[in-house]
What does this fold into?
Amino acid sequence: MFNPTINLNHSQEALDALSPELRQAINLSYFSGFTTEQIAGLLGVTIEDVEERLRAGFAALAG
It folds into this structure.
C-alpha cells in the first residue's frame, strides 16, 4: 500500500543530503516555481551555473 508520509520523509532526507547550493537551486525551481533566469538573479550567479546545479541536484536525487 502506498504511504505518502514515508515517501515525503525519504524525499526530505534525499534533499537534506544535497549540498546547500544544489538544494537551494532545486527548492527555488521545483518547489517555489522560479525560472532559471530568476534564480540566477536571486543568487547572483550565471544561468549556466543554475542549470548545472539543477542537473547535478536532480541527478543526485535520482540516485
